[in-house]
Amino acid sequence: MKSWWWLPILLAGCSSVPPAESSSPAPESAPVVLAPVTRRQVSGSLRLTGQVRATEAGSVILTAPLDGVAVSALVKVGSSVAPDQPLVEMNSVYGLTSLQILERLEKEQDDVVEARGRLSEALTRETEAQTSLGQARAKVASLRADLRQAEAELQFARSDVRRKQELVEDGITSRAELEEARTRLAKAEAVRQAAEQELSIARGQLPLFQRNIGQFRQAVRLAQESVELSESNYQRNRAVLSQSQLVGTDLPADLTSLSLAGSKPAGAAQASTFFVRAPIAGVVTRLSVTRGQRLQSGAEIGQVQELSRVYVDANAFEADVAALRPGMPLQVISNGKTYRGRLDYIGRQVDPQTRAIAVRSLIHNPEGGLRPDTFVEVNIALPGGPGLTVPKQALLSLGNQKFVLVEASPGHYVRRTVRAGIESGAEVQIIEGLKEGEKVVSQGGLLLEAGEE
After folding, report:
1. How many Å apart are CA 375 and CA 155, to the nearest integer?
2. In sequence order, what DSSP letters do the residues of 152-187 get, joined into one string?
3. What is the spatial distance between Cα 437 and Cα 418, in angstroms, rounded to a whole number?
4. Per the confidence metrics, is the pTM higher than 0.70?
5. DSSP letter at 13?
6. What is the rounded average pLDDT of the residues 13-31?
7. Domains, the chain, ranges and CATH?
């Protein structure tokens, strides 16, 4: 009795890579169907799963401009809003008091003094580094002169030794004078070697001084930015204190995105009311405030997204990316509706976990049907052309390897590793591994691989 229930388990459990070619006789009862390798026009598309995302310019985070308490949310999530439309009403009566403002001003004034002190110290260190670099360069120049002098004296001592050697051989001078000349030569060589070594050390110190100057210049830039920021904070809160006590007086209309509830407030509570307004036209995709909630300045309270154009991001495998080019036409399908666009960006990095590469398209979305974070189908049209094809059923896989079974002789088949291309209907393109006219197993390949029990 023949049983095939174990075939998928056997195939899935194979961990070794099969040899490039191995001959397998066909089991007598295996229903083997052959199909020729044919050349035809190939065209197809790559299907991916994508995710809708808002563009960078079309997404704005809403924040509380001042400390205060939320009075009420004037819109709901999903509402379409216009620029400068009030979204959240806030009241600063329970926000910063004049005393708190004064305390903050004192701290910020101290921050200004401290920042200026750091700037002064950084400037001093930069000046000292410049001076040290100048001294180091002067020392190098002096040592170069010393080395040239030592080399000249060494050359003279060598000439003197040669001359005394000739005079001794001619009997004109004594051997004692020759020994004195040799002693002077040894000293000259030692002096030149010491000068050369000292010059090498001095030259090696120059890059260190130059790096120090670069670091101190960066410290100066950072200190200048810190001074500008601390002075800006100080002046801002000083203006707030001078123009408004935050309780019973008008808030300055030009402070951040604040605006009075009315041009002539009737009382303290009304005078301290202000709105968080929509910075752009779009849709409120998030709003997280409740009545009576105390909010600090800068607290994130929601998000507005402009959705007339959105990104659709997808992940393609390495083998698929080879056929992709920027500008290729594509379709995005969501809830039965099709949006057309073109491939704008193909990533350069491979995700180490999924082995996929990010691709992105910019899609026009005038009616807002594509919503951020929703999943969609992406179909990218691939270029067509003549190519070798086999039925899809003929293409088998083992791990990352694709192969087919090629008829070597009647009833005998060899395994052939191939490189597959795009799918076109019931056919799949074979880029490498087959020749036109060869016959491959289109049905029964798994049985041939497993054999019979």
Report:
1. 84
2. HHHHHHHHHHHHHHHHHHTTSS-HHHHHHHHHHHHH
3. 16
4. no
5. T
6. 49
7. 11-55+310-450 (2.40.30.170), 60-94+247-305 (2.40.50.100), 99-236 (1.20.1270.60)
